[in-house]
Design a protein that fits this description.
399 residues; alpha/beta; FAD/NAD(P)-binding domain; 5-stranded parallel β-sheet; 9 helices; 26 strands; binds flavin-adenine dinucleotide
Amino acid sequence: MHTIIAGNGVSSVTFLKEIKKTLDDVEFDIFSEEVRPFYWRPRLIEILANEATIDEITPYNEEWYKKRNAKLHLSEKIIKLDAKNQIVETSKGSRLKYDVFIFANGSKPFLLPIKGNNLKNVHVLRTYDDVEKIKSHYGKSKKFVIIGGGVLGIEMAAALNRAGEKNISIVEFFPYLLPRQLDKAGAFVLKESLESKYQIRILLGKATSKIIGKDEVEGVEFSDKSSVEADVVIFSTGVRPNVEVAKEAGIQVEKGIVVDEKLRTSAKNVYAIGDVAQHGKVVYGTVEPAVEQAKILAKVLSSENAKYSGSVMSNTLKVAGIELLSIGKIDPDSGKVRFSSQGDSKRGLYKKIVVENGKFVGAITVGVSKKEASNFKKIVQEGQSPTSEISKYVNLEED
Ligand SMILES: Cc1cc2nc3c(=O)[nH]c(=O)nc-3n(C[C@H](O)[C@H](O)[C@H](O)COP(=O)(O)OP(=O)(O)OC[C@H]3O[C@@H](n4cnc5c(N)ncnc54)[C@H](O)[C@@H]3O)c2cc1C
């Protein structure tokens, strides 16, 4: 049996590891757009911070692939898929027949469609090559502006600072950081902590309208016509699944390549896993779901009875060394809800717990110990009611 995989990220290598546990008579051809074999993508942040090297985050050598009957084709993309005849075409002109084809080709950064987004010194961060480009500006007193105050934008800013850069700004469209995970008061504490810990400037409520410059970046302009100076701009404004090949092949695509509970696409013998896949209405874009999908697919293709029914998104997060918890109903909008919140921006601490109908239904913590955060998590997950034991945390008030 011949299986072809597009992509050599975490979903691809996890699948390869797992399938060999149960199946030995499969030959794999893995095509990767990148010039080097699999590396741990999230650990690119450590390289950006000068805390790791590419070798340290590259776990598998040629031998590892060989042992798994896999041939790795680097710098060679899948450019076309003929689903009817089960043939793919690569960027180097090869045409290969497959029995099974797997899209594991991830996503790419999304650039705001604004003037100047193609100027010199505008960057994104997705691959090791991107890291090298950003690092080429180190030590030259450059002004870095990161557009996007999500988890990745914050991580990047902290990494630049740890690498010795002193002039770093984050620009966020929303009026506070991490609006999906935090409320205003919690986000304020996070902002204060980041600014004091890493000397990062954070500009909130700013809609970027233009990158200023002739050939090279000179600044960033906002819709309110204010601007900041910049020598380097890094977009961290989300990702989009790499769906082009599937779309052209007539495979069902919405935000990502649509898959069912067996990770099947709409084409026979074609599957999709990881950042490129859409299950239900969800494209996850994180490592855990990619790994879960890869493991399930390995079982499906080994004729085991396995089903993917979606992943549970983790509610704990570590951003630039600061622990966060965000669980359940965090921003109560009904008058029947009571909540307690306690913030100490000097110490970088914030805790909030929400009660509805006599039960804990949501919580946020910023900067507290892992142990205390997990206490909050537990009482929400168990739907506990305010008792004397827990009252040490809370002094409930009407919202
Ligand atoms: C800097 C950074 C930090 C991150 N930190 C975290 C984190 O802390 N936690 C977390 O959960 N997630 C994190 N993520 C997201 C995480 O890396 C992705 O969710 C994960 O890598 C997805 O794996 P994947 O296998 O689906 O795709 P990818 O890792 O994107 O791999 C897909 C590969 O396919 C290649 N490719 C694309 N098109 C083709 C084609 N046509 N033919 C052949 N090859 C192709 C791509 O070049 C790429 O190498 C981070 C991402 C980045 C960039």
